[in-house]
Amino acid sequence: MADTTPRATSNRSTTPGSSTFKDFIGSQWAERDRTVPAQREQAPFAADRRAALSAKHTGRTVVVPAGTAKVRSNDCDYPFRPHSAFAHLTGWGTDTVVGSVLVMTPNGDGHDATLYFRATAGRDSEEFYANPEIGEFWVGPRPSLDEVAADLGLATADLGELDAVLDGVDASVLVVRDADTDLTRALDARLGTPVGGVAEADDAPASDDVLARDLSELRLVKDPYEVNELRKAVDATKNGFDDVIADFDAVLAHPRGERIVEGTFNRRARADGNTVGYDTIAASGHHACILHWTRNDGAVQPGDLILIDAGVEVDSFYTADITRTLPVSGTFTDVQRMVYEAVLEAADAAFAIVKPGITFRQVHATAMEVIARKTAEWGFLPVSADESLQPDNQFHRRYMVHGTSHHLGLDVHDCAKARRELYIDGVVEAGMVFTIEPGLYFQQDDLTVPEEFRGIGVRIEDDILVTADGAENLSVGIPRTPSEVEGWIARTGR
Length: 494
Ligand code: GLY
Ligand code: MN
Ligand code: MN
Description:
By secondary structure, the protein is α+β, with helices and mostly antiparallel strands. The protein has 16 helices and 17 strands.
């Protein structure tokens, strides 16, 4: 399973193979400092998460791979990012060793957790200099088992020992199936189990689906470490927005100004965090009405509103998800302001109801009442706002087809496999973090709206922490009201 064979490069390989060379390159290296580090801040939180998972799966081995890098083309990969469940349960961040696997082995009522990873190879190994995928000469040094054990507060073992462990498991084993598909296939082949794991009963989901569900639900309420990481992500994202505004002259001057926006934001994400948490949307003019406009190859014209939906993912992989819609010339026109203020009213109304005990669904319903009322007032709906809000009508949704909120955390759309009754129909609890992101989008060819509205798209998206008795808008420091936004552009840009 732990394949260490380099991808074929024999037609261009120039590495010398003589024993004289091997002896020479494998010798005369100074000893590395292997002082074990102090335990990192997130280690006790990760231990609590493992304990919570353990309690749900007594007596069963749980396998959580980090996964491997995904191929971009030929022998080039996308940057490696471990599976979010692995990051959550280990607390390992951007320094995760590719291909690592967390195994939780039953031990009475609980589990023993062991982190298997490919430990540092000797300088006398061929891997050291001749393996472009994992060799130290190519991708940098790896830590020792002792270093990682101290750092993460977890027992560690060499990945080479994993096969023997997996040979010993029975069909009750649970695996995060989408983390490392080669490992999953190998495990299925060993056990002869059907794809998806074994269902407990005919009408029950396959057991691996239950694991995926539980791992998602474990992330619905954030612990203090996670909240702090999300704050850092939001702060870095604010800096990214500041950078973009400071660049508005260059944005307007370039034929693909949207790309300048993307590049400027993404530079901040790489500088201050790991990367962006999702592809930046830089959508100027009528592109703002294309909800996932990530091609970003349009011009930004004077007078445009530009919708920027962007978030920095920090080194622990927590991400912000923030949208601001900005008048690139510094001020809103009357109609742009009217649409903007309607969206802001929807966002503020939704935020105002957030506290423990409400249902998640109510946040969306509250925003939709404003969207329906505004679009009815403007004469865009064939019926009144009240009639439009009836479940079978929903005419106002023509102008906002997406939902208002999603959970946020290690994934931008976090907790994706949680049960409906704990998500959309779930009760809001302190420690949850989710977005509030209403919008209004009037397509450029929409004949139901007057011409001056066509091609205007506005979304305002904030990241909300539920507190003991209400909510905190984590991104309130990023200007939101029309006058704040205009002041921001006057101060920072142009
Ligand atoms: N950026 C994706 C979203 O807002 O959900
Ligand atoms: Mn979002
Ligand atoms: Mn977003």
